[in-house]
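Task 17 of the worksheet. Students: predict the tertiary structure of the chain below and write it out as structure tokens. Keep your answer in the requested format; marks are given for formatting as well as content.
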Amino acid sequence: MGHDMQRVPSTTLSGPDSASRPESRHLDAMHTTNDQLLPNGTQAYNGEIAEPWTQNGASGDTNLSGSDAELPQVDAKMIPLSITISRLITYAYTELVTLVDTLPARTDADRRSEILKYTDHMTDMLTKLLVLVRWAKHAPQIQKCQNIIAYLDSQNRYFDCAVDSIYAAFMSMPGVRMRNYDVGNAAEILSTGSYQRLPVAIKRMVPPPKLSKHQVRETLEAISGIIRRRILCGEPVPLAMRRYVIKNGRIVFTVPG
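Model answer:
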């Protein structure tokens, strides 16, 4: 990534929020005297020459390898370095204008105190920014590590989903498994033409066939015989119920009065 696309943590610099200005394309917007921009994108800090920043953020390498292109890009809680520099410059300028506007109404001692506070505060902020800019040289490697971690996390999630799917398929297999062929019953049906091994519960659900008139007459005669035998061989019938008629499976008693 280019110099203006370096991403840094959003909480690195402290200070009040201020209105954003157009992003600076070069570090010379800091108006510092110790740092200078050399040809070919090489940055010098206090006489030290850093490696040039290339388009993909790696030193001296302008092509992404196939494995790097497949890694997910993690940009959470990261902001471009150019925005950080621009906001710090805006903040420093705003504080300076405010200081210039308020100094005439103060005493000489207060003026010196406020100027000293402003100078110390801005020195701390610019020192942090300088450390951050030097650290940004290694941002591509850190970004690549974050991308690798995100890639491994996604692969771990895919692995967990695959394991869960395999386990769910395993648990559902008994319900969809095909039973063995019933060779014994098939041979019985082919040889005898009927199947005699049905459960008794199935016969209870099937209504019995209607009896023929001959079967009904024989059944009623059998019931009449049973009733006659019970009357003759059972307990004595009271005298008032000695008059009865047994017919069609029924007994009809005639009681006088």
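Marker's comment: The helical segments are 66-69, 81-102, 108-135, 139-176, 183-192, 200-205, 213-233. Residues 139-176 form the longest helix (38 residues).
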